Amino acid sequence: MFSESRASSLLTILAGCASLLLGTISYAQDALEIADRDLLARHEQLQQQLSEMESSRGRHDPALMEILSSLADSSVRLNLYSDASSLLERSLQIQRLSLGLFTTEQIPLILAKMDIDARGGDWEYQQAAKITYRALRISEESIAPHDKRVIDLNYSLVKQFYLQSAAVERLDDTAYALRAVVPGSKWVRPRRIAQSRYYSAGLRLLNEMRKILTQREADPAESLAMVDVYTADWHVLFDQNKAELAYQNAYDGLREADVDKSKLDLLFATPKILPVPAFHDTVSSALTSSYSARTRQQAEQGDDYLNFQKWLDTMLVISFPVIAPPQEQAKQEREAEIRLRFRLNSLNNVPRWLGGRYRTNMSVAEEFDFFESDEHPGIDIESLDDRLYLLHFRPHLEDGIARPWEGFLDYPAPVN
């Protein structure tokens, strides 16, 4: 049984790794900024501290993990992703030596390492899914089956499958590797077959989340209806017409679970860029999250606009809509935030040519108008089309029915 002390230890490590993951987003700055002088000084200080601790305690003492985590965080802030990854790998080795090969304490470190390797361009999508499965298997053996952390790991794997699905659409070596019949083979599956596999895998994971939630002692009705919302999102991401009925059923389930209608109106007032970053098992949790707090404020004030923040430079159609960082933190010389007016016509399919292919996608923007684009003359407007028109949205819902919506999207565009 998972002890209280180990649970406390895991939560402490999770908090540290959450900080590390936020660092990978918040500190992707140019290395020449003045602020980096302080970062470099701090980095050198941490390296000295690590060296001193290794001399006095050895290279495998568990006490090293805290300084290794701090040094990894410092490396990320300096864009030294390879160094950060190596430091987290050392932490994993120390954990395995001190606690065993398969322990829950490894999970947050594994996920943090995945994120860093991806941002450093040194991560294979298939391996990412494999190692997330490993973390999931560890959690199932060590944590109560209805624990929220197991739910979160399942949803992390759902997002991994979408990451691979999006990569399949690219015309590069990664896309062909993901479609290979066997690893390294020149024979590849048709794109639609590969996408069908990811779609089915995601549905299985969402159904597994449903099974886990039914084991809770409290009434799971609201949580099960929230799974239905995310399942409808998944249908949208893969352009499945069953999304419309799925949203209606999810909304009805939330009403039957006695969720206040005013809360549902807030939750569905503004479209959300998919996939949604985190799984929330209640409407209240979704509304109080940092992601939705701004959405709620927008709905209350009538401000119909969304923010886009990409996961990776190489995967520009994968996004977290979050509060934009302060202007001084933006990559001034390479990106500029532009405001785009767009329209969603409920869940209608939108056909167009993109990247040399004729595509029909569900719940994507019909058109984008480049509002105030004259302020940034170096932006290549035409190069943005493929990125923007592949963004899928959870639609604006009224009583569970998808309705048209118009608003603005703040988008970080590359500047020539």
Number of helices: 15
Strand order of the largest sheet: 2-12-5-8
Structural class: alpha+beta
Overall pLDDT: 76
Largest sheet: 4 strands, mixed
Shape descriptor: globular
In whole angstroms, the N-to-C terminal distance is 57 Å
CA-based gyration radius: 22 Å
Low-confidence stretches: 10-16, 18-35, 311-333
| SSE order, one letter for each helix or strand | HHHHHHHHHHHHEHHEEEEEEEHEEEE
Strand element count: 12
Strand fraction band? 5-15%
* Secondary structure: helix percent: 40-55%
Question: How would you describe the overall organization of this protein?
Answer:
- This protein is an alpha+beta fold and 416 residues long.
- It has a domain of 110 residues.
- It has 15 helices and twelve strands.
- The chain has a four-stranded mixed β-sheet, with no helix packed on it.
- Strand 3 and strand 4 form a beta hairpin.
- Helix 7 packs antiparallel against helix 9 and helix 10 runs antiparallel to helix 11.
- The longest helix has 24 residues.
- The protein is globular.
- About 12% of the residues have low confidence.
Give short descriptive properties of this protein:
416 residues, 15 helices, four-stranded mixed sheet, globular, two-stranded antiparallel sheet
Describe how the helices and strands are arranged.
Blueprint: H1 4-26, H2 35-57, H3 64-77, H4 81-99, H5 106-119, H6 125-142, H7 148-168, H8 173-179, H9 191-214, H10 221-237, H11 243-256, H12 261-267, E1 272-273, H13 283-288, H14 290-301, E2 305-307, E3 309-312, E4 315-320, E5 335-344, E6 349-354, E7 357-362, E8 368-371, H15 385-388, E9 393-394, E10 396-398, E11 401-403, E12 405-414
Parallel strand pairs: 2-12
Antiparallel strand pairs: 1-9, 3-4, 5-8, 5-12, 6-7, 10-11
Helix pairs in contact: 1-3, 1-5, 2-3, 3-4, 4-5, 5-6, 6-7, 7-9, 9-10, 10-11
